[in-house]
Specification:
alpha+beta, Zincin-like, three-stranded mixed β-sheet, 3 strands, globular
Length: 100
């Protein structure tokens, strides 16, 4: 399911520009987060979503949030929640109704 939604968001929001990535469900509790984006040495990322996310909307919003970080990594931007992140977040909301 994650791969399907990742591909759909990649096309609809990021115009298919995101590179394939690792996707998994696993604990993010050590980081006090519901999702994580791990940059890998090869220029790719691994996205992890917490299994405690209880609704499809929460899963999709968290996935979109981490995909913005994936775009930041691919683009050489810092993985922050600054202006670039907020701009992408506004676009995600406008196109999907998801709040990241």
């Amino acid at each position: 399911m994650l791969r399907y939604w990742w591909a759909r968001l990649n096309e609809e929001v990021f115009h298919g520009e995101l590179h394939p990535c690792g996707l998994e469900v696993g604990s993010c509790a050590d980081f006090n987060a519901v999702g994580l984006c791990y940059p890998l040495d090869c220029g790719r990322v691994r996205l992890v979503l917490d299994p405690g996310l209880s609704t499809r909307a929460a899963v999709l919003a968290t996935l979109a949030h981490e995909m913005i970080h994936q775009w930041q990594h691919q683009s050489g931007e810092p993985l922050t929640h600054g202006d670039v992140f907020r701009s992408w977040g506004a676009l995600v909301y406008a196109l999907t109704g998801l709040t990241v």
